[in-house]
């Protein structure tokens, strides 16, 4: 008996079967193969892909390693990788262009939910031999992305594992810190639904230019996923407190926090406002942690990673600290600046201003740089940004033409033009070009306001929106009455509580 799916359903099934048949005959191009495989999976068909082990050692960031597996072979598998590829994805996440080799490690100080969890990018001694570092280190992050995107977890784990499971970061994992200099520090805050590894391209480039970058993983339920360790009682307490803790033991204590969606009829602002407050506190706590490390205090890492934190003593210039973030992380930049004047300046990438309360604007006394995409901003958001305009403190805003909101995270480098445009992960501009402009403009602004003795001032015109693919201010048309009102905004007042 013929199923009653309606003519649209019957037609869809026929099209899916036709696509898959053509894919098996290897007569379709790369995109059709990828779509055919996905259609087959959704229809419950059995895929004939073969899983292989390449013999490459891939490193988890909790101290474990494995051989890469589950990579599609044959032309169909190549097709998927090529479509995820193009110029940027063929190269993967771009390496840093600066003179410093980049190392990175993870730090979880205080294993409880109240502790700090961050990825630290730092200048290191050059070492040609290092293990490949997985970009997305754990399958639980796939589950978190699925929750954020409203996709079935099993489907998402399959899809993300196929597409991104073997993507690695161009950084030296857990290698010795490069001593002998004092480095400026950047605290980086990720966007809604992201986590600490998804802005590797930006963090690696800034580190290659001589910064130490601490990418915080927020535990306010705005990340796709994160985790901490529960306390273990009685019989296992001795092992928990020992200096060497095995990964199986840690896994038994893991407590994962996944993205929290709004409940039915729940108002969004109270949740987001509470989250941005916690995010700012977590950025401040990360700064406190690195301040302790710089002073020589012993730090206990709850992750089983051997890294000599004492080598960072007196190597961080705590007079040259900035904060940077994307989207929700951009709002976190503003909130953090209002709470702690140790942050000398901030860079907000395509900031989402909704979570901020009205009280925050007059408390920000530091220079602030907004780098916006062309396709994300709207009048209400821009007007909130313009509330921070000040005649005596530099507040700059530029717009990067040809970009979308997701032009800042790493996904823009890992998708081909078709999938990238379909899911709005990349704009019309080459992501390598847009990221280069963004990084150079950020470096010029940071040099100006951190007092760096570098050559980043060669890119000063970018701060004013002068250059190819840039405009000063915004491309968003603002109502005349609101524009006039923004010009009357009073200048920030120094708050002694900061």
Automatic annotation (TrEMBL):
Catalytic residues identified in the record: 327 (nucleophile), 350 (charge relay system), 405 (charge relay system)
Entry keywords, A to Z: Glycoprotein, Hydrolase, Lipid degradation, Lipid metabolism, Secreted, Signal
Name of the featured protein: Platelet-activating factor acetylhydrolase
Pfam families reported in the protein's UniProt record: PAF-AH_p_II
Domain of life of the organism encoding this protein: Eukaryota
Cellular localisation: Secreted, Extracellular space
Any single GO BP term: lipid catabolic process
An annotated Gene Ontology molecular function: 1-alkyl-2-acetylglycerophosphocholine esterase activity
EC number: 3.1.1.47
Family indicated by similarity: Belongs to the AB hydrolase superfamily. Lipase family.
SUPFAM superfamilies xrefs: alpha/beta-Hydrolases (SSF53474)
Membrane-spanning segments: none
Keyword RNA-binding among UniProt keywords: no
EC top class named in words: hydrolase
Keyword Iron-sulfur: no
């Amino acid at each position: 008996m013929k199923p009653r799916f309606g003519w649209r359903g019957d037609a869809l099934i026929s099209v899916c079967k036709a696509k898959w048949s053509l894919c098996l005959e290897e007569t379709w191009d790369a995109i059709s193969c990828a779509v055919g495989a996905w259609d087959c999976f959704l229809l419950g068909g059995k895929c004939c892909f073969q899983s292989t082990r390449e013999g490459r050692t891939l490193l988890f960031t909790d101290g474990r390693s494995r051989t890469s597996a589950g990579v599609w072979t044959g032309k169909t598998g190549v097709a998927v990788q090529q479509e995820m590829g193009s110029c940027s994805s063929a190269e993967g996440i771009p390496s840093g262009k600066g003179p410093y080799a980049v190392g990175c490690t993870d730090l979880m100080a205080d294993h409880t939910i109240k502790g700090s969890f961050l990825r630290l990018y730092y200048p290191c001694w050059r070492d040609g031999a290092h293990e490949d570092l997985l970009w997305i280190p754990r399958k639980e992050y796939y589950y978190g992305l699925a929750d954020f995107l409203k996709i079935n977890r099993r489907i998402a784990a399959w899809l993300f594992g196929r597409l991104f499971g073997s993507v690695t970061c161009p950084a030296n994992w857990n290698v010795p810190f490069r001593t002998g200099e004092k480095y400026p520090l950047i605290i980086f805050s990720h966007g809604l639904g992201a986590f600490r590894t998804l802005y590797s391209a930006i963090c690696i480039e800034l580190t290659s230019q001589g910064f130490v970058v601490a990418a915080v993983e927020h535990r306010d339920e705005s990340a796709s996923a994160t985790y901490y360790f529960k306390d273990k009682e009685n019989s296992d307490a001795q092992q928990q407190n020992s200096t060497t803790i095995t990964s199986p033991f840690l896994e038994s204590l893991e407590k994962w926090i996944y993205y929290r969606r709004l409940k039915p009829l729940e108002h969004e602002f109270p949740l987001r406002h509470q989250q941005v407050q916690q995010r700012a506190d977590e950025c401040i706590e990360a700064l406190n942690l690195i301040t302790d490390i710089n002073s020589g205090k012993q730090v206990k890492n709850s992750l089983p990673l051997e890294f000599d934190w004492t080598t960072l003593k007196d190597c961080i210039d705590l007079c040259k600290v900035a904060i940077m973030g994307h989207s929700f992380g951009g709002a976190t930049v503003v909130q953090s600046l209002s709470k702690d004047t140790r942050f000398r300046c901030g860079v907000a990438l395509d900031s989402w201003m909704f979570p901020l309360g009205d009280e925050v604007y007059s408390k920000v006394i530091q220079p602030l740089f907004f780098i916006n995409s062309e396709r994300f901003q709207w009048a209400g958001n821009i007007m909130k940004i313009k509330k921070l305009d000040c005649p005596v403190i530099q507040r700059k805003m530029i717009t990067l033409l040809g970009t979308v909101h997701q032009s800042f995270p790493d996904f823009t480098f890992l998708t081909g033009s078709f999938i990238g445009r379909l899911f709005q992960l990349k704009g019309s501009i080459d992501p390598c070009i847009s990221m280069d402009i963004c990084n150079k403009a950020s470096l010029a602004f940071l040099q100006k306001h951190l007092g760096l003795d570098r050559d980043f001032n060669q890119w000063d015109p970018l701060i004013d929106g002068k250059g190819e693919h840039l405009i000063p201010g915004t491309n968003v048309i603002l109502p005349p009455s609101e524009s006039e009102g923004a010009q009357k905004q009073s200048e920030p007042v120094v708050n002694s509580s900061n």
